[in-house]
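Customer ticket, subject: "Can you confirm the structure for Flagellar biosynthetic protein FlhB?"

Message body: Hello, I'm evaluating your service for our small team and ran a test protein. I'd like someone to confirm that this is what the system normally returns, since I don't have a reference to compare against.
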Amino acid sequence: MYMKLDLQFFNQEKTEKASPKKRDDTKKKGQVAKSNDVNTSMILLLVFLFMFLYSAVVGEYMFTMAEHVFSEYMRWEITAQTLPAIFQELAVETALVIAPIMLIAVAGGVMGNMVQVGVMFAPEAIKPKFSKLNPIKGLKRIFSARALVELAKSFTKIILVTVVSFTIIWMHADDLLKLSRKSVTEGFMEVAYVTGLIGVAVAFLLLLLAIPDYVYQKHDHEKQIKMSKQDVKDEHKKSEGDPKIKSKRRQKQQEMATQRMMQEVPKADVVVTNPTHFAVALKYDEANMDAPVITAKGADHVALRIKQRAKRHEVITVEDKPLARGLYEQADIGDEIPEDMFKAVAELLAYVYRLQKNVT
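Agent reply: Thanks for trying us out. I re-ran your input and got the following:
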């Protein structure tokens, strides 16, 4: 009894790598090895690199907009007609400034996902799951090993980002302290430069930290989707027992067998037909065969294909209803003809050889 229980426990232990089907099923549910840090770092890196190139345009645009506000709107009378017009114009101008940055951020997020999981569409991942509202499961997630790892990662990132940011600000402290002596434009460009430098440095830092995080997430994902020996057996039984899979496999095997058989038709000496229901291709090599061999046979549609292929390759076709039916029913492809049909086949081959001599 104890031995039986031990075997059951061993069969339920998840020790086997996930099968291709299990991987496809988990991918359809949106469960893949992915680090959110990769997405975050890619977004920050692309946005701040873009800002380095775009900051002058943003600054100029903002100054122009501020000048327009103070030179035009300040003289307007605030009424029910002018106030919506002011807000509408400011909203459009602000959108023109922010839109390129938002597009770059979206591109960074998409790129981060593409690098990790490729193209993936998982509608099941966005379906509402009421099991996530279970408070007991929520507490288990909070106090799990994964939560502790995430907490340690967050503290590490906060400390490193703080150190990097403070170091860059310290290096530019003299320039920042002199902002009061500079014009508004120069001051804006100085602050934008330091901000961009901090952003790019932090993005590179997070990208470096994302590499081990992705390795950990991949390892953890592989661990989560492992299968027990019983799971492997059940999946194998299910796939083998699925009528659709069996039917597709059988259809594929039949197609391959028919294709191989059709390749032998041009090598045949003669094709015997019923004429419409059966067709049997015969081959005889006196040096290597004791008796003629059936190289192809078929009924109805397959018989029609055999006759068409024989005609295309100029293989002689002879109509003999009893012989065609007898050969089709009493022998398989690759078999020698039955002994009781030796005489009929010999006469048929003699007739074919005479035709070939007359043609030549």
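A couple of notes from the result: Residues 1-10 have pLDDT under 50 and may be disordered. The domain at 254-359 is CATH 3.40.1690.10 (name from scop). Feel free to reply with more questions.
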